[in-house]
Amino acid sequence: MTKYIIKRLFLLIPILIGITIITFLIIHLTPGEFTKINMQMDTKASPDSLARLRHLYGLDKPLHIQYIDWLKRFIKLDFGESFIDNRPVINKILERLPATLLLNIVSLFFIFFLGIIIGVTSAVKRNSLYDRFMMILTFIGYSVPAFWLALILMLFFGVKLELLPISGMKSIDFEQMNFLEKVFDIISHMILPVFITSFGGLAYISRYVKSSMVETLSQQYIKAAYAKGLSEDKIIYKSALKNSLLPVITLLGLSLPGLIGGSFIFETIFAWPGMGRLAYEAAMSFDYPVIMGVVTIAAFLTMLGNLIADILYAVVDPRIRYR
Fold first, then answer.
1. Would you say residue 217 lies in a domain?
2. 88: which DSSP letter?
3. Predicted pLDDT of residue 22
4. Residue 199 CB coordination number (10 Å)
């Protein structure tokens, strides 16, 4: 198992490099450039000024040379400096990373915790009123565009009822609050983003768990357990549920790219101070170093999540052994 983990960690390196190459090419081949946008705001700027500015940021070099220079810095965990404020990119990312991790970890918790509960109860109470209600709810989760639902909930709960904050992570008077007030303030700001982030994933997980659980409950060893007189709770939660969780673990690795990718949209809508919003702001201003830094960190977190999901296979099912 240890050799497998080490091998997978080393395999992350070429994959990560491949992602950075593709990202680097895309952002540099996109029409527009930071220096041109910057010079357009100065009507007195001359072509010589533009050339000097491009040379200052190294944008006059061939693309492969620019990428090699970036890769040399990346090996030292140096993502360069932002074009906008000349701050180290790694510092800007570290400032935003906790907010993104908080939002995604809480969302993952609700997606899998509630999704497993809904899926199991729907399988046990199959074809009941509860099951049909949950089926309708999951279809809504599949069908409704998340960004549209976010705007509707912001309008209803934030503007109309004024019950929940609709932007940011903290209130203006956050520093004047005591500890409990600060905790509740952050929670109130998280309710809408977490709900929107979790809603679609919750529908997907619950349907998947239900399907897996229904199949498990139809197995002969489950019927034999009922015939022996074992309690229903013991059969469902100790035998059937454990065997149903293995395919669900696959979804853990698949959920991370969606959450991290979705955070680019939801963090912008809710003005959540995370990496997604930072990447959006960098893309709008053609801040190449920041875009590369955010994408690289997001890709690494995604691959690390997939590795954790693979390791959990062996934890849930001892028959699985990685070599």
1. yes
2. B
3. 92
4. 22
